[in-house]
Amino acid sequence: MNRDLLLKALRNTTGAALYIFLVSQLMANGSALFGKEDNSLMPFVLLLLFSLSAAVVGGLIFGQSLILFFENKKKESVQAAVYSVSWLGIYTLLGIFILMMLK
Fold it and tell me: Domain tally for the chain?
């Protein structure tokens, strides 16, 4: 197990989880922040936010793997991807557990 790679994956996945949390809070409180009027610009902005989120989270989760892959460190690249997805799974399970406890 590559400890340095594991910690980098934890750092990047934590950043992704925080970003996802902030976007979810923006969406949950959107009507309070932006008003309740039906605006034709809203679908455009939401699609832009979705695209930005895919790029940011994809970069945070798989960016280290891509860097390692292009440095011809294929074994470490796969390890980084597995570590990142595993941390994301742990965060997901933790979120589900917290929701169940708050029920």
Answer: 1
Q: How far apart are CA 17 and CA 74, in angstroms?
A: 26
- For 14, residues 6+ apart whose C-beta sits below 8 A from its C-beta are 87
Note the pLDDT of residue 41: 84
- What pTM does this model have? 0.87
> pLDDT tens across 10-35, in order?
999 999 999 999 999 998 888 888 77
Q: What confidence tens digit (pLDDT) does each residue in 58-78 have? A: 999 999 999 999 999 999 999
Determine the distance from the C-alpha atom of residue 44 to the mean position of all C-alpha atoms in its chain, rounded to a whole number. 21
Could you tell me if 9 and 64 are in contact, meaning their C-beta atoms sit under 8 angstroms apart?
yes
Q: Which domain holds residue 9?
A: 3-102
Structural Rg of the chain based on CA atoms: 17
If you ran DSSP here, which 8-state letter would residue 36 be given? S
